[in-house]
Amino acid sequence: MAGFLSNFRNTMIVSVILALIMIVGYYLHGPDHGGAIFWQAVFRWLHVFFGILWIGLLYYFNFVQIRVMPNVPAELKPAVSKYIAPEALFWFRWAALATWVMGVILAISRGYLMEVLTLGFAGGYDAGQINYTFLGVGVWLGTIMFINVWGFIWPAQKIALGIKEADADAKAAAAKKAMMFSRINVLLSLPMLTAMAMNQTVFG
User: Fold this and answer.
1) Which InterPro entries match (predicted)?
2) 10 plus 53 within the same structural domain
3) pLDDT exceeds 90 at position 34
4) Are residues 187 and 159 in the same domain?
């Protein structure tokens, strides 16, 4: 068992297989047997999985790596910047993209994409649209965070980590820029998660 669990790929393969067995169970025993509700559940599952991966890594960078790096001995810092950070950033940026895409697909499948994007103002606004206002705020915050990842954090990190050639001053400036946009995403993450986590429970 220890040998199996020490192999990350095999562990994830078995985890995915077990999840697929459960998904098939929902397909067979759900109320619409593979209809619209089932596929909405699948898209939500993917949206949540990629979101956990994305925000988990965002919190790793900010709760751990950025805070601890100044105390890491100089001779050990290349281990983080050359090996750990590039790998973490790979999963970070692609999880951000997948989270956003799955969120859009989920909104389309539920038929409320335009209502959410317009904060409930599509087709006229009334008090019954407040659920779209809350959810729309969460969607727009998540979209800003996604844009920050691909438009600012990743381009800056490529310079800071030496993936893209630059002098020492440019690397330092890029590292500061990446950190600031990462902190913006941390700031936005809790209100975004509030909308995502509470909206369906409160409004259905």
Assistant:
1) UCP032086, Urate_ox_N
2) no
3) no
4) yes
